[in-house]
Amino acid sequence: MAQLDVQAKLAILADAAKYDASCASSGTAKRNSRGGKGVGSSEGMGICHAYAPDGRCISLLKILLTNSCIFDCAYCINRKSSNVRRARFTAQEVVRLTLEFYKRNYIEGLFLSSGIIRSSNYTMEQIVEVARSLREDHDFRGYIHLKTIPDADPELVRQAGLHANRVSINVELPTTSGLTRLAPEKDVRQIEGAMREMKASIADADDAAKRFKSAPKFAPAGQSTQMIVGADAASDADIVRRSSSLYDRFGLRRVYYSAFSPIPDASAVLPLKRPPLMREHRLYQSDWLMRFYGFTSAEVRSATDAQGMLPLDIDPKLAWALKFRDGFPVDVNRAPKEMLLRIPGLGTKAVDRIMSSRRWRKLRLDDVARLTLSIAKVRPFITTLDWRPTFLTDRTDLRMLVAPRQQQLELFTA
Ligand code: SF4
């Protein structure tokens, strides 16, 4: 590997980290002083935004320790056979960079992942060393999200949890057959074993914290994972089923979905085109239905078509309501919260407002309209003191009436 300065390594390793969606990230607005250099510039530095457990949006330095990897996962730009420029940080370089960015107020924490160097244990030792040094040598109190290497020694993974706020272990693909085909060196049992151990360690730490004030914290922001969408033949129904099982079995805080994007010099086993980004969005919406709206995985899957795919033109809650119209209209003045949460167009906050307002008075259509972006979408599915959607709920063209209008994009905008 050619000798590179830290700036050059940062450019390569921040760029390589952008393919990892498991810290919900978005590019930061560039703070570009003097052509990307100079004080205050964050251009090209891999700063992403993530949400802390308390809901705050925080900036993280998102980098890889190295983009060299001994594995050859077909979908990954860092795989052994990929023809990309390689770079590698030392643990101390990452520590220094994190502290310097932190002191300049560019970031509030670090997201660190890595290709596998030499062996899983060696890589995990390096990752742990970064977090250990930040916490113990420099008393770093910022947020740390570490990606763990699934078949690393459980003791190393446990040490990662002692220093990090969040740890993630990527399942990568929704089906075992997809993983076997595209990432043959990975083993679903090892990945799930690591998640199981992480769940147990988090639960032990929670128990200890209830009994002893001084008990050490362990991954207080929990564990998460990432699934690549569209690299294999898995349908949306397969993905929803897998996510639900991961949430139930391993107590994950989040499953992140990342639409597969064709990479330079891609393996021939991969599709040539990326899936529509809207597919990723619909999967996030279905994930929210399971986590916040009380939908079971089977209910979300029942909103898919014969091929197991969610519609792209309407959201999964609306798709479900259109399929199961016999449960509607719902009386917003009397229905239990679980049913209100199933009304298309009503979010959790709107439902809470309805629940508290209706204790004092009967709600009219106008009252509901004030709580939603589109009363046209909600109307066919509710009754209020002054509204009953006679025949509307059963109309054969209801989907057309409530689907968002397709907008013709302008070729030239002012
Ligand atoms: S192990 Fe991770 S970094 Fe290495 S090729 Fe597979 S996905 Fe890429």
From TrEMBL:
<dbReference type="InterPro" id="IPR058240">
    <property type="entry name" value="rSAM_sf"/>
</dbReference>
<dbReference type="InterPro" id="IPR051675">
    <property type="entry name" value="Endo/Exo/Phosphatase_dom_1"/>
</dbReference>
<keyword id="KW-0949">S-adenosyl-L-methionine</keyword>
<dbReference type="InterPro" id="IPR007197">
    <property type="entry name" value="rSAM"/>
</dbReference>
<dbReference type="InterPro" id="IPR006638">
    <property type="entry name" value="Elp3/MiaA/NifB-like_rSAM"/>
</dbReference>
<keyword id="KW-0411">Iron-sulfur</keyword>
<dbReference type="InterPro" id="IPR023874">
    <property type="entry name" value="DNA_rSAM_put"/>
</dbReference>
<dbReference type="Pfam" id="PF04055">
    <property type="entry name" value="Radical_SAM"/>
</dbReference>
<dbReference type="InterPro" id="IPR010994">
    <property type="entry name" value="RuvA_2-like"/>
</dbReference>
<dbReference type="InterPro" id="IPR013785">
    <property type="entry name" value="Aldolase_TIM"/>
</dbReference>
<keyword id="KW-0408">Iron</keyword>
<protein>
    <submittedName>
        <fullName>DNA modification/repair radical SAM protein</fullName>
    </submittedName>
</protein>
<keyword id="KW-0479">Metal-binding</keyword>
<feature type="domain" description="Elp3/MiaA/NifB-like radical SAM core">
    <location>
        <begin position="59"/>
        <end position="286"/>
    </location>
</feature>
